[in-house]
């Protein structure tokens, strides 16, 4: 359930189920996550410490 497309010198992979999109190029990877998932991501991903979110 993924859509894979070549875009310029990179690849775009989109999950049709979750809405997560990943752009991959030689020098970088960008992951776009729908806002509804943001409260369940780790502190590094959301810019907050893991203690802030209640994880040990």
Q: Can you put this structure into words, describing what you see?
A:
The protein is mostly beta strands. The chain has 1 helix and 4 strands, in the order ββββα. It has one domain (2-46). It has one helix spanning 43-46; strands at residues 2-7, 10-15, 21-24, 29-32. Strands 1-2-3-4 form a 4-stranded antiparallel β-sheet, with no helix packed on it. The longest helix is centred in the C-terminal third of the chain and has 4 residues, at 43-46. The termini are far apart. The model has no long low-confidence stretch (mean pLDDT 78).
List the helices and strands and how they pair.
Blueprint: E1 2-7, E2 10-15, E3 21-24, E4 29-32, H1 43-46
Antiparallel strand pairs: 1-2, 2-3, 3-4
H/E element order: EEEEH
Largest sheet properties = 4 strands, antiparallel
The helix tally amounts to 1
- Determine the fraction of residues in helical runs and give it as a percent range: under 10%
Radius of gyration: 14 Å
Low-confidence stretches: none
Tally of extended strands?
4
Q: Give the count of structural domains.
A: 1
N- to C-terminal separation? 34 Å
What spatial order of strands do you see in the largest sheet?
Answer: 1-2-3-4
Shape: flat
Q: Which structural class do you get from the secondary structure elements? A: mainly beta
Q: Give the assembly state of these chains.
A: single chain
Strand content: 35-45%
Q: Give the overall average pLDDT.
A: 78
């Amino acid at each position: 359930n993924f859509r894979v497309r070549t875009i310029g010198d990179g690849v775009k992979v989109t999950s049709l189920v979750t809405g997560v999109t990943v752009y991959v190029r030689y020098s970088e990877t960008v992951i776009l996550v729908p806002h509804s998932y943001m409260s369940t991501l780790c502190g590094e991903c959301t810019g907050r410490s893991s203690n802030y979110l209640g994880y040990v």
